[in-house]
Amino acid sequence: MTILPSQISSMIKLYSKYSNTSEPLLKKEDNEIKEREDVVSISAEAKKKQIQEITKQEVMKKIKESLLNEQV
């Protein structure tokens, strides 16, 4: 791997720029680094299908739980 003089120069400039700042580059809260949260927007139809799927799963879960309770 070859390192060019221009790369070294760029790294030195970057280091000196951030070493002179009073704020840390990475802010940590409770020893954790927060990750950026992805924001996703979906259509109304997709949202409706998503809600129907979640509801279906919850109903099936309740049915299975009630059947297990009856067998015991």
Q: What is the typical, i.e. mean, pLDDT? A: 80
**Residues in helices, as a percent range:** 55-70%
Q: In this structure, how is the largest beta sheet organized?
A: none
> Strand portion, in percent?
under 5%
Please compute the radius of gyration using only Cα atoms.
Answer: 27 Å
Q: Indicate the overall shape.
A: elongated
Number of strands: 0
What pattern of helices and strands is seen along the backbone?
HH
| Alpha-beta content class | mainly alpha
First-to-last CA distance: 67 Å
Unreliable stretches? none
User: How many H/I helical runs?
Assistant: 2
Kindly describe this structure.
There is one protein chain. By secondary structure, the protein is mainly alpha-helical. Helices cover 60% and strands 0% of the residues. It has helices at residues 5-19, 44-71. The longest helix has 28 residues, at 44-71. 0% of the residues are buried. The mean pLDDT is 80.
Please provide a brief summary of the model.
It is built from 2 helices and no strands. By secondary structure, it is mainly alpha-helical.
Characteristic terms for this protein:
elongated; 2 helices; mainly alpha
